[in-house]
Design a protein that fits this description.
The protein has about 200 residues and is mainly α. It folds into 2 domains: about 55 residues, Arc Repressor Mutant, subunit A (Orthogonal Bundle), CATH 1.10.10; about 110 residues. Helices cover about 60% and strands about 0% of the residues. The protein has 11 helices and no strands. It is elongated.
Length: about 200
């Protein structure tokens, strides 16, 4: 008859967070609350969402305004968008790629506009980073071949950004909220019927 084997459970303490990791975790919890409640959110709510005491919150940032400023800087960081654009597969069909880029830009603008509206536009956007604004256009240049577009890829980027920004603005979309399919149709096919487009393009 075999004897039962004793199981010994060894509990290990989680590695304590560094100050930067703690600040990052607090911001991860703070951003959704700020989008939902704006400036009315309390430090108690922020602390509870982050799973820390209010004292830890103040030691990490100083005060609520510092948390808001850091959250704005985090939210305006362009690198997540750039990484998402880099993930678009250059081998996919052209229209599918345009759709993905347009959707990514739309989500970006809608998020930023909604976030700043919740804060009543009382926070200055962070200064531009050292990396040039054209970085995202360089990413598009590696996503689209020159022979698959009728316009320079930089122009396509500006078209898509213009449409995505306009479609994310509540005053512009109050009468008609544009769908992604509508915007894609406008970019890829325009507003004229095919016969009319061919006729117009043949004019001197």
């Amino acid at each position: 008859m075999s004897l039962p084997t004793e199981v010994v459970v060894v509990r290990t303490r989680a590695r304590p967070m560094s100050p930067e990791e703690r600040r990052s975790a607090i911001l991860d919890a703070a951003i959704p609350l700020l989008r939902e409640n704006g400036r009315e959110v309390s430090t108690k709510q922020l602390a509870e969402a982050a799973g820390v005491a209010e004292g830890t919150l103040f030691r990490a940032f100083g005060d609520k305004e510092a948390i808001i400023a850091a959250a704005v800087e985090r939210y305006f960081d362009p690198e997540p968008l750039r990484n998402a654009l880099r993930a678009v597969d250059p081998a996919e069909p052209t229209v599918d790629k345009i759709r993905q880029v347009l959707e990514l830009l739309g989500v970006r603008f809608a998020g930023v506009i909604g976030f700043m509206s919740a804060l009543r536009h009382q926070v200055e956007p962070p200064p531009r980073r050292e990396r040039p604004e054209s970085d995202w256009l360089d990413i598009l240049a590696s996503t689209f071949r020159r022979d698959e577009l009728g316009i320079p890829v930089e122009t396509l980027g500006f078209y898509l950004r213009l449409l995505a920004f306009g479609a994310a603005m509540p005053p512009i979309t109050s009468a008609h909220a544009f769908t992604l399919d509508e915007l894609l149709e406008l970019v890829t096919r325009g507003v004229l019927p095919p016969a009319a487009s061919d006729s117009e393009s043949g004019k001197d």
